[in-house]
Structures are given as C-alpha cells and as structure tokens.
Design goal:
The structure is a single chain. This protein is mainly α and about 260 residues long. Helix content is about 75%, strand content about 5%. β2 and β3 form a beta hairpin. The radius of gyration is 30 Å and the shape is rod-shaped. The termini are far apart.
Length: about 260
C-alpha cells in the first residue's frame, strides 16, 4: 500500500502537465541551491572564525608590531585588517606630511581603511545568504501554487469523469498537498541555516571590530589600550589598578616592516 501511494504521488506530479512538473523542478533546484550554500557557508564560517581567533591570539602575544606582521602569516581577515591598517598609517605619514591642512587626520585615515577592510569581510560573510533567504521565503508559496494547480487539475479530471464521490476526490486532492509539503521541506532548512549564519556573522564581525579598535589605539598612541578596574575589590580592599590588555608595542616608525609593505 505504501509503495502504491508513493507511485501515485509521483505519477500525479508527472501527469499534472507542464505546470506541475515545472513547480517540482523549481523546488528541486531551490533545495539543491540551499543545501549547497548551507554546506559551503558552514565550512567558510568555521574556517574564518578559527583563523581569526588564532591570528588575534598570536598577534597580541607578539612582543612588537614588527614581529607580529613579519612572523604571523595567516589567510585571515584579521591579518588583512592589520596589514591594511599599517599600510594606511605608512601612506599617511609618507604622503600627507606636505599638506597637513588639506588632508584628514592620521587616526581618521587609518579608521577609514579599517572600515573598508571590515566592509570587505562583511560582504564575504554575507555572500550566499540572499539565496537562503529567498529560498526560505519563496519555496512555501511555490509549493502552495503547485498544490492549488494540482487540486484544480484533479477536480477538473474528476468532473470530466462524472464520478464525484468522496473516495474519488480524496486521493487526488491528498496527492496535490504533497507539493505544499515539499515546499515546506525546502524552506525550513534554508530559514534555520540563514538565522544561524546571521548570528555567527555578527559574532565574527563583533570580534573583528574589537580587534580593529584595539589595533587603531595601538597605531595612534603607540601602546595597547589599558583597562582600569574601577572599584574592583580584592579581599575587601578597593582596587583602582590599571593593567594592559595586550603586551604588544609599536616599534620606532623606521623599523616597522611587513611582507610587501615598505618600512615606515
């Protein structure tokens, strides 16, 4: 009986004419596209997140900026961000020295280049999400359209045969509802994956944004940001101590180098 039902459902789609077959093919293509991006984005986000965390940890453990840029080479957005920031600082000091009144400030110039690097990473992380969003929002309606067309086609066939009994109507109408079920089966994974990827992307960008702010402080002041523990208590004694968030320091301008970047 189960095999007969499956055969009838497939036969119903094949016998539904050009419209039913087109709807089924569209849903199949949507499903393949969504699962391709689900797998691809999972690998991409996992790889980028791991590379960013590893680079940031090694970067702040370096004794100075020169060592960090020369010895830590990873295919990571954080590495690209640090390189672009150093290039921007170098470019400003080289070309803006003669027209200080017309150029933007040193820290603003670095911040602009950092924002451009962060925007590039954002576009990289968001690639493919529009496909998942489209599949998740459109596929249920595509399946519903297939169901409506299938019911219309089934009722027209029953009317032409002149046998409008319940057992003659229930079968074709039930088979037509399969298109709606297929549409939901395509949409649900796409919606869940989209929400998950958006959350992961926000976490990655928040981490990069924090790294960019600390790096900006390092390049503009020459030292990493210090954190003051206001009102912290240790064994009942108020503590206003200051500790460095990172140990890295900026070497003298003439000695800072990176691969492919001239000395400052």
């Amino acid at each position: 009986m189960q095999q007969s039902t499956e055969f009838d459902s497939l036969s119903f789609i094949l016998q539904g004419g050009f419209v039913s077959i087109s709807v089924a093919v569209i849903l199949l293509m949507m499903s393949l596209a969504s699962w391709y991006f689900i797998i691809a984005k999972t690998v991409q986000i996992t790889t980028l997140n791991s590379a960013i965390k590893r680079y940031m940890a090694e970067f702040w453990l370096a004794p100075n900026l020169q060592t960090a840029l020369e010895n830590i080479k990873m295919d990571s957005p954080a590495h690209q961000l640090a390189t672009n920031a150093v290039e921007a600082a170098q470019h400003h000091q080289t070309h803006a020295a003669g027209n200080l009144n017309e150029s933007c400030s040193y820290d603003e110039f670095i911040a602009r280049n950092m924002r451009r690097s962060l925007s590039h990473t954002t576009s990289q992380l968001e690639s493919g999400l529009s496909v998942l969003a489209s599949v998740g929002s459109v596929s249920p309606f595509v399946g519903l359209f297939g169901t409506v067309w299938g019911i219309y086609h089934a009722l027209a066939s029953i009317s032409a045969s002149g046998q409008a009994t319940l057992d003659k109507v229930a079968g074709p109408v039930g088979e037509a509802l399969i298109m709606t079920a297929i549409g939901l089966a395509v949409a649900i994974p796409a919606v869940l994956a989209y929400n998950t990827f958006v959350k992961k992307n926000r976490m990655i960008m928040a981490s990069l944004d924090g790294f960019a702010q600390d790096l900006h402080t390092l390049l503009t002041t020459g030292a990493a940001l210090a954190v003051r523990n206001h009102g912290a208590k240790n064994n009942g004694v108020k503590n206003d101590s200051v500790k460095n968030r990172h140990n890295i320091k900026v070497m003298p301008i003439q000695t800072v180098k990176s691969e492919g970047v001239p000395a400052w």
